[in-house]
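Box S1 | Example of a co-folding query
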Amino acid sequence: MTNIIMFTGKGGVGKTTMSVATALHHAGIGKTLLISTDPSGSLSEIFARPLSSKVHTVAVNLDAVELSRKLVLDLWREKFADDIYTVLSSFLPVGREIIDYLEGAPGIEDEFMLDYLLTMAESGEYRAIIWDTAPTVTTLNLLFVQQMFYSHLTQAHKLYFKMKKVFNNVDPLALINRWRSLTERIIDLLRTDTCAWVVANPEHLAVEQAFNIADSFDGFGIEVQGFILNKVLPAEFCQDHPFWQAKYTAQQKCREKMQQRADTRPVKEIPELIGSIQIEGFLREVAGLLHPGR
Ligand SMILES: Nc1ncnc2c1ncn2[C@@H]1O[C@H](COP(=O)(O)OP(=O)(O)O)[C@@H](O)[C@H]1O
Ligand SMILES: [Mg+2]
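Box S1 (continued) | Returned holo structure for adenosine-5'-diphosphate
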């Protein structure tokens, strides 16, 4: 089964940087897919080509895609729209426009982003999938929607038995069961084949949020493998001016707090580097720091 490695954390902390660096590292071992579900994802800019309409090969052994809302909904339509229409139209006087209506339902795109992830993982094409997630809140929604969806489908099952009489010639139960099994597989994928790295910067809010995320993930049953403390100021550059000395001291406090609270989980530290986000140079350097010894 494909290994899924996700990077999560507050906006701007370095999720995309860590994801791309890790993807480059894994591409050196086997075929790797880099997926971004951040609506403000920057993979297209980094790889200097549009990645929001489909999977593209961006380097040797490395494919990448940005899951835009449009792409997810297009794929959703292709896969499920006919089924849903058949079932609903069997007992409601509705036309195909019901599909447009359903597309607007809250949580639908989150639901189908996870379906996309499952499809890619089950395809067996990739040894690893690196998942660059949206900032905190959206990612957590994604997980809770999944649980809600599951309990909703269990309800749907009960409802079906009550409403059995109104269905004509179609088997909504088969559809409900298919969806339920899909949802189960997604939850299973997240709990058994996925691990998360929580990224933070050495500042109060990012560190607090990192631990909130870790707690939620623990609650959901996704393995938090460790933390990445990114953009740590190197001591040798902070000695000559009171501003940098104070900044350094404040960062050291956050750093200690992170190490204490991380407990047995590793905290990988990446220094503040010079340069902009680009493959050769900056990202290779981060890859070397994140995955030493290769
Ligand atoms: N260790 C680092 N040193 C210097 N700049 C960094 C470092 N990590 C990330 N950056 C820069 O910080 C910005 C935000 O990083 P990014 O990975 O896009 O964060 P996120 O995906 O969490 O929003 C980018 O401009 C990136 O180039
Ligand atoms: Mg990003």
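The chain has ten helices and eight strands. Residues 3-73+103-290 form a domain with the Rossmann fold fold (CATH 3.40.50.300).
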